[in-house]
Write a structure and sequence with these properties.
The protein is mainly α and 91 residues long. It is built from three helices and no strands. Helix 1 packs across helix 2.
Length: 91
Amino acid sequence: MSIATAPDALLMRFQPKDTASKVSRATLSRLAKQLGYTRESEVLHYAVRKLADEVLPKYEVDDGPINAKQMAAIRKAAGPARGKKVASSLF
C-alpha cells in the first residue's frame, strides 16, 4: 500500500503594477500567451529555471586552495619536466 503525497506548492501574490522585482498577473498572463503555455505556472517554472541556470554555480564547490602536502603529491605524480622551461606558473 502506497501513501500518496501532496505536491509541494508555493503561493504567489501578484502586485498591481510591475516593478523591478515583482510582476502583475497581467504580465504573467501575457508571458504565458507569448510563450505558448496553457498554464501560467509553466511560465513561473520556466523563469525560475532560467534564473537558476544564470545565478547558481554549475560545478560542485571545492574545499578551497590545496595545501603544501597536496602540492607535493601533485609534483611527485607529475614527475620531472621534459626539456622545456616553464615561463610562468599557476602556483
